[in-house]
Amino acid sequence: MDVKIFEGFTDILFEVSLALIPLLLFFMFFQVFMLKLPWKKVKDIFIGVALTFAGLSLFLQGVHVGFLPVGQEIGDIVGEWQRQWILIPIGFMLGFVATFAEPAVRVLNLEVDKVSGGYIPSKLMLYTLSIGVAISIALAMARIIYGIPLWYFLAPGYLLAMGMMIYSTETFTAIAFDAGGVATGPMTVTFILAIALGFAETLEGRDPLIDGFGMIALVALAPILSVLTLGLIYQYKEAKEND
């Protein structure tokens, strides 16, 4: 596998610039007309933006030259195995690890812990989301192996989520749907999706466009169900303590 570290890096820099410059202009507008923060604070913000630009550019370049090719290669190799069911536990493990390392998930957990005053610990949320995504990745791999239509998972899953919302609190419902968004971050989308596409492409009788894609929809659903389940457990324990 021929890897060129800085291939396409100019395009990455341009894309990151397009993402950050509007935010910077937006901040500067409010700084001039409304915020009027002291210069020291503004300088810290500019330094933070510069570090964000550098970090995001390098990360996306790493995704481009590292995660995607490696994921595709792993999927191609696994697709040639005779015991393809092994990819189901492998998918579970990769889903857990990828979510555990997801920066956006960490930020959400810390914010939930802070705002709830420790009522919902960040570590508990982290394990809840990681296990939920791990199960969804395992189901996605099983779907590719056995050719199960995507809506067999999505339709019952969202119906179940809507039913659980009726009995869950507004707090856990709000956290659940935000969790569904942050779990579909760069770790999952780039690495595990590449494995799924490579696997579907190698597996006989499977179409990567039909069978490979759809995994992210399952990943977005899993945290909703896992957090709503956590909310119901909280309610059950509180009701038991009040009896």
Quick structural gist:
Helix content is 82%, strand content 0%. It is built from 10 helices and no strands.
Question: In words, what does this structure look like?
Answer:
It is a single chain. The protein has 2 domains: 69 residues, no CATH class; 164 residues, no CATH class. It is built from 10 helices and no strands. Helix 1 runs antiparallel to helix 2 and helix 4 runs antiparallel to helix 7. The chain is flat and about 65 Å long. The protein starts with 8 loop residues before the first helix and ends with a helix. The mean pLDDT is 87.
- Give the SSE string: HHHHHHHHHH
Looking at how many chains there are and whether they match, the oligomeric state comes to: single chain
**Mean of pLDDT:** 87
Largest sheet: none
Task: Determine the number of helices (DSSP H or I, runs of at least 4 residues).
Answer: 10
User: Which stretches are low in confidence, meaning pLDDT under 50 for 5 or more residues running?
Assistant: none
Radius of gyration: 21 Å
User: Terminal Cα separation, in Å?
Assistant: 63 Å
Computed structural class = mainly alpha
Number of strands: 0
Q: Any idea what the shape is? A: flat
What share of residues is helical?
Answer: over 70%
Strand content: under 5%
Number of domains: 2
